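Weekly modeling sync, notes
Attendees: S.R. (lead), two postdocs, one rotation student

Agenda item 3: backlog of single-chain predictions. S.R. asked that every request posted to the team notebook include the full sequence so nobody has to chase files. The rotation student volunteered to paste the first one in as an example of the format we agreed on. Action items at the bottom.

Example entry:
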Amino acid sequence: MHILVTGGAGYIGSVLVPTLLEHGHGVTVLDTFERGTTELASCCRHAGFEPVRGDARDERLLDELVPRADAVIPLAALVGAPLCKQDPITATTLNRDAVVALTKRASPAQMIVYPTTNSGYGIGEKGIFCTEETPLNPISLYGTTKVEAEAAVLENAQGVTLRLATVFGMSPRMRIDLLVNDFTWRAVTDRAVVIFEGHFKRNYIHVRDVVKGFEHALANFDAMRGQPYNLGLSSANLSKLELCERIRAHVPQFVYLEAPIGEDPDKRDYIVSNEKLERTGWMPDWSLDDGIGELIRGYRMIRNSRYANV
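Predicted structure, as returned to the notebook:
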């Protein structure tokens, strides 16, 4: 197939795009490439790789690129509640409006596989798993824009949506701010972390299993079309305190403390069932412990001390 990936040089895209190329697909990546770095440099050896510098909101580019694709994977977004709160205009126009514009240009013969977020569930009921039938209740601009974009993709059974758990793992375009990545970084570099509201729970998934989910949806598109699917590790519905305990099994010197006062601005708290996707034949390859071990190895190479003396 020929696949159009918007935002393909990001955290997920820089793992997804090489995988698609290695599996024989042609891939056009529409990205601003604003960081000027080389996350996709190894892809240039593939004749089927076409990088296009541009903005996913540029409707003239969408008019040109969308009709040429057999499938579209819209990754371009401001990801995370803090970033969206900082730039609400870009969050709205990129996370929602650009996806709506893309769906309007796609024909019924084309496939759209859209990654939304299970943070759309907001605050769940204690002890009750969120399923795809659970009412969505986003509590941030990030969650709201992704939920609205998902509705556009699912309208008239046009596409498949994957409600991603909190992603972790190494990537060429690394993000250390994601929760597992962040806590593991602190364990390796600082040996300590202070936690606010450590009982808050969420679900997790390795970035390579996200890529596996995209490929699974493309391969089973007709059967999955028009539906949302939770994509996460069923073995990893964990509180922040439980996550730290798992990390300490790998880094015994790691100390974590729950603050007696203060609160986390991210109020998400839910557990998620991934059974619907698993029934289609998808299963994860990476456990949480596998990912923590990978991160520890990766952090031996990374330095994040730009403004430090040491």
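Discussion: group reviewed the output briefly. The mean pLDDT is 95.
Action items: rotation student to repeat for the remaining queue; S.R. to check formatting next week.
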